[in-house]
């Protein structure tokens, strides 16, 4: 059951301090004035407290950050002050700890360890399977009362550890400052200096930042944050509740630090870089829940995230062939692009059987393939990046459509094509036939590919010829055209309900109130196993309602309301992906009070009172959902069939919403008041059209237009 995972690197964040032989530990001694905070604008974490044991007192003040300017760099500064009338002995133990594991699994083979120039600790490690090399380098600078000091030091080499030990007697009212400069470098870094060996390159880089110093490095990182994040697409909420705006900044901060903007060979893990949950793997979370933020705010980053999916076509082809299909079938869980499927086969315990539960997602949760194609079309529709489509996007949409054409099941009795034995977005329903979300996204994928073949043949002959050689477009066109005519799309029944699948509406209905919106997700599995839940009308997350959100132009308000009232009461929201979709739909349906309540529940997933909610890592998709609730929901922004729509509706608690987006290269600024809103076009040459209440409005360059909004 072992699959590839993101390895935990040797740790250089920890520092051990002893005062008169007593280790500073918040579980012992007397602690006062403890304070720990993060500046989301810079990523700098500061901590301060007073600590006393056996009549020895010390005041601790520390700060640290990972540089956004130079992603290899981690800086840490600790100041220890002696406020007492007597001298104290301070011992500092700091170094590189290579004994770190992934829940007990050691992924690195130990290599060379050494102290260079009496300052620079350096450890070479190599991953056990992929044979990737990593060099960790750490240097220290110590000062007493602001002046560099020659302090007694010893050097220790242990198994997988390199340590420096400093010892000093600190006089009354004196301070000791320790600066720690850590760098991580690998042999597959894109900015690798190949004129030097890996260890020499790493040493040279650490020597450089050692000379620059903490303050200069922080200034460089701060400037990068301002230039590339906070000033690019500013967004702000004026609310009765300060937590609303804070949650938005919290989400933007984490979306930035968890996204490998520097390397298109990587994507966003479901837990970002904050925990081992889901082994660092990438899911559909990126395309449907996080990518929209980047498309509208940082289009270049969105392009990189989608380029990752293009690089993953090799793995997608491999998965399709293994399953007896053609084309590109994207893995449910992805790691390195060429790895293909990386979903574990076995998961949590079955409370009834006492065995591990099989994870079927890697086998039959297939809507991910359509989700990727849908995201590509969303990206080009919003950015108009035709270069991306020419080199990458067309192939993704066509190759995934080829998969769906081979995946369809022909039902001779009904004379139609279906998709049988799948899992839809609602993972509490396994082995179902004709999951509506899956069928609609597959149908859209195939229809879009069919249209593209016609468009490319008529207007981009060279591109058409290249893709024809790779994918046999003439044959694909014939197959798509024939199968689309007989492709079954579930329809609304007489009650206006869209069946989630062929059997959902016939399953047992139970009272799910004991399990709905619990602090501890999945509480129903303390009573039932997944096989039992599979036979009940219980949903983990939005499924039909997610379909209605993505394809809202296919459903009128009555259908949306009917399906909301049918499915939401049956949804536990056990997935962190669920609340944001429901909040947006509540906004669309005009229930701002409910939308806001769901928004508040969603932001509490990682910022709420349950201190163990993020033990396995932060909920990355939920953070993307925060931006979507604000901009899509309350801000009323949507791209529908290639057209921009702005139709805001603020909750009563909000007095002002300001957000910025990029639409086809034009920067638009939207300011929303309770009864009106304005849109500013910052382009000097381009006009922009948008829809508001079915009326098309044009904004000329360098112009602001103000509109009244109905309550």
From TrEMBL:
Keywords, comma-separated and alphabetical: Glycosyltransferase, Hydrolase, Transferase
Sequence ranges assigned to domain Glycoside hydrolase family 65 C-terminal in this UniProt record: 637-698
Pfam families registered for this protein in UniProt: Glyco_hydro_65C, Glyco_hydro_65m, Glyco_hydro_65N
Keyword GTP-binding: no
UniProt domain Glycoside hydrolase family 65 central catalytic: residue ranges: 250-628
Gene Ontology molecular function: carbohydrate binding; glycosyltransferase activity; hydrolase activity, hydrolyzing O-glycosyl compounds
Keyword flag Magnesium: no
Catalytic site: 427 (proton donor)
InterPro entries xrefs: 6-hairpin_glycosidase_sf, 6hp_glycosidase-like_sf, Gal_mutarotase_sf_dom, GH65_N, Glyco_hydro_65_C, Glyco_hydro_65_M, Glyco_hydro_65_N, Malt_Pase/Glycosyl_Hdrlase
GO BP, sorted A to Z: carbohydrate metabolic process
UniProt binding sites for substrate: 284-285, 540-541
Family as reported in the entry's similarity comment: Belongs to the glycosyl hydrolase 65 family.
Listed PANTHER family: GLYCOSYL HYDROLASE-RELATED, PROTEIN-GLUCOSYLGALACTOSYLHYDROXYLYSINE GLUCOSIDASE
Protein name: Glycoside hydrolase family 65 protein
């Amino acid at each position: 059951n072992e699959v590839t995972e993101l390895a935990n690197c040797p740790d250089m964040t920890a520092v051990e301090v002893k005062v008169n032989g007593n280790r500073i530990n918040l579980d012992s001694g007397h602690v006062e004035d403890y304070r720990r905070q993060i500046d989301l604008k810079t990523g700098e974490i500061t901590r301060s407290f007073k600590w006393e044991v056996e009549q020895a007192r010390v005041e601790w003040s520390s700060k640290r950050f990972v540089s956004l300017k130079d992603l290899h760099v981690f800086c840490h500064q600790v100041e220890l002050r002696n406020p007492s009338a007597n001298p104290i002995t301070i011992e500092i133990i700091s170094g590189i700890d290579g004994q770190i594991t992934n829940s007990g699994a050691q992924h690195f083979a130990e290599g060379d360890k050494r102290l260079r120039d009496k300052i620079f600790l350096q450890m070479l490690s190599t991953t056990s399977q992929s044979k990737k090399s990593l060099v960790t380098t750490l240097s220290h600078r110590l000062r007493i009362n602001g002046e560099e000091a020659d302090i007694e030091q010893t050097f220790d080499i242990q198994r997988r550890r390199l340590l420096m030990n400093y010892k000093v007697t600190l006089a009354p009212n004196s301070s000791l400052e320790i600066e720690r400069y850590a760098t991580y470098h690998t042999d597959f870094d894109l900015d690798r200096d190949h004129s030097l060996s890996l260890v020499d390159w790493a040493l040279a880089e650490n020597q450089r930042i050692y000379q620059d110093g903490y303050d200069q490095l922080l200034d460089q990182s701060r400037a990068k944050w301002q230039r590339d994040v906070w000033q690019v697409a500013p967004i702000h909420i004026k609310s009765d509740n300060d937590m609303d705006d804070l949650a938005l900044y919290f989400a933007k901060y984490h979306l930035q630090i968890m996204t490998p903007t520097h390397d298109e060979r990587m994507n966003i893990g479901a837990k970002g870089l904050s925990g081992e949950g889901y082994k660092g793997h990438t899911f559909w979370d990126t395309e449907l829940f996080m990518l929209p933020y980047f498309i509208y705010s940082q289009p270049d980053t969105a392009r990189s995230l989608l380029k990752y999916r293009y690089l993953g076509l090799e793995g997608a082809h491999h998965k399709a062939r293994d399953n007896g299909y053609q084309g590109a079938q994207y893995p449910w869980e992805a790691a390195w692009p060429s790895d293909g499927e990386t979903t574990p086969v076995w998961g949590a315990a079955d409370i009834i059987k006492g065995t591990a539960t099989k994870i079927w997602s890697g086998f039959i949760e297939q809507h991910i393939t359509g989700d990727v194609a849908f995201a590509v079309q969303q990206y080009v529709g919003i950015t108009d990046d035709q270069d991306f489509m020419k080199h990458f996007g067309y192939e993704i949409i066509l190759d995934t459509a080829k998969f769906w054409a081979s995946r369809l099941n022909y039902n001779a009795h009904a004379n139609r094509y279906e998709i049988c034995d799948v899992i839809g977005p609602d993972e509490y329903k396994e082995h179902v036939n004709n999951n509506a979300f899956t069928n609609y996204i597959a149908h859209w994928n195939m229809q879009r590919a069919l249209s593209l073949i016609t468009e490319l043949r008529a207007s981009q002959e060279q591109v058409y010829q290249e893709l024809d050689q790779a994918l046999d477009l003439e044959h694909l066109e014939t197959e798509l055209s024939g199968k689309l005519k007989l492709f079954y799309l579930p329809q609304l029944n007489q009650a206006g309900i869209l069946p989630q699948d062929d059997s959902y509406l016939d399953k047992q209905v139970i009272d799910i109130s004991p399990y709905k919106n619990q602090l501890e997700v999945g509480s129903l599995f303390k009573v039932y196993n997944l096989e039992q839940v599979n036979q009940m009308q219980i949903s983990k997350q939005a499924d039909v309602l997610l379909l209605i959100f993505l394809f809202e132009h296919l459903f009128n308000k009555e259908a949306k309301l009917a399906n909301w009232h049918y499915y939401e009461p049956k949804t536990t929201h056990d997935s962190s992906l669920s609340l944001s979709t429901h909040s947006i739909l509540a906004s669309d349906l005009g229930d701002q009070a409910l939308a806001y309540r769901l928004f508040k529940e969603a932001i509490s997933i990682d910022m709420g009172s349950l201190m163990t909610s993020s033990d396995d890592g932060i909920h990355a998709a939920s953070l993307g959902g925060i931006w979507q609730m604000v901009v899509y929901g309350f801000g009323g922004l949507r791209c529908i069939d290639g057209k921009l729509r702005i139709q805001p509706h603020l909750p009563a608690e909000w007095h002002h919403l300001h957000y910025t987006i990029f639409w086809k290269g034009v920067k638009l600024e939207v300011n929303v008041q309770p009864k009106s809103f304005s849109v500013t076009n910052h382009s000097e040459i381009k006009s922009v059209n948008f829809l508001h209440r079915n009326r098309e409005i044009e904004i000329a360059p360098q112009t602001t237009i103000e509109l009244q909004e109905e309550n």
